[in-house]
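Suppose a classmate hands you a notebook page containing two proteins, each written out with its sequence and a corresponding row of structure tokens. How would you begin to make sense of it? This section walks through that situation. The first entry is reproduced here exactly as it would appear on such a page.
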Amino acid sequence: MAADPVRMVLDDGVAVITLNRPEARNALNSETLRLLPTLVRKADGDPDVDVLILTGSDPAFCAGLDLKELGRSGDNLRAGGADGTATASWRGPLPPTDKPLIGAINGAAATGGLELALACDFLIASERARFADTHARVGVHPGWGLTVLLPQAVGLRRAREMSAVGRFIDAATALEWGLVNHVVAHDLLLPFCLDLASEIRTADQDGLRLISATYDAVGEVAPGDGWDAEQAGVRRFMQQAGFDPSRVAERREAIIKRGSDQV
């Protein structure tokens, strides 16, 4: 029997959610995109949970949308709402959480995987972490807030470079650019995040959740229109350029080889 593509372990008030398709570098197929938000909502609604941690099974955090499925049918593009036709009541790949969501980036986070990381409240990176935006190389338009959240994290010019060049940046560069909060030894990644979670749990939780909600509200004051602009952009892309799975299939090997050479 195949293992669940996403696992969740609850321990001492912390929910550790792990992308669990290591053989596919935790690429996001339709099943993963259905299960992941469900587990996030379940953990966020659990009164015994105060902090969520999202990570991946080594060697990668998340390679983005599964290119095999994307090149075959494109169903995972639609399943996650990244094609501009999302019907879910939230923006991006994850539902909003009242509780802190820490991204424990254990390896490569590319394209949709980078957007998944950006959906977390803050990021802790293993020394093995790498980050790239290859939407332009795959031939799809960002639909999970990358054009809003990446410039917020690293600045507009660096974000433009990442999207135009599609090259991986290493963990040290991600720290220098402000994309991640800390870089730690690979074996210490989860213990470091659990230590942070333990500290977070000593705060007044009701007060912390109100502060987090205020951060969300303040963050929407200007960028809110940016989300609308991105959704308009991906709809234009789908209408004008169109999404052709066969083009993804043709590019897949070259994309994988280029990423492997860099990581």
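The notebook's second entry, a different protein, reads as follows.
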Amino acid sequence: MTHRSAYILITTLLLLFSQGVVKAEKKPFSQNLRIGAKGGINLSKVIFAPTIKEPFTLKYNGGVVTRWITERHFGLQAELGYSMRGWEREFINQQQIDAGYEYSRNLNYLELPLMTHIYFGGKAFRCFFNLGPQVGLFLSEKETTNINPSVNFPEVGKAVENKFDWGICGGGGMELFTKTGSYIVEARYYYGLGNIFKNSRDIENEVRKDPFSQSSISVISVNFTYLIPISSKGK
């Protein structure tokens, strides 16, 4: 291929590409606001240090959702929800197993995630990702156990000490648009950056004052959401 032929080919491709970009830019876009409700399941545990052996436990969540699409492929999503969290200790010591020990803790929170919403797809079906910070307010707890507090399990009888929770959350899913609204399924992970128990240390004597240096919440959730359009603004 000669330099002249290559020049003509590259020029032609650039012209075709630029025409495609112009057409895409001319395609109408509407900012839109949708609100609705969500509900789903939580697989919850608390990450302790020193480590406590525990599986993910099944809990539930629900709340309201507001989503504002501000740009092509981008928007903001805020939620206010009720979330059940907690953990269940798994006993691996044979003596503890023979003793029939049981322990679980339910934690109830009011949570507020504020996330960037990134989506791909057409008018009828989209895939998306959500990512952002989340804060939570501790509401109540319930401890279920047959272990005497005198036995050396530091969490037994120890109430939640930090009422404010904060961390990051992110996930992805699919959205189907219909005349009656949009239907969404999403998987999400939340990692708490705070601790439910105090974790102070005596720096001078280099010893830990509290039994746990970490007690942060970890939640995998699967949610189903229904949104209805409230307003739309051309751009």
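A careful reader of the second entry would note: The mean pLDDT is 88.
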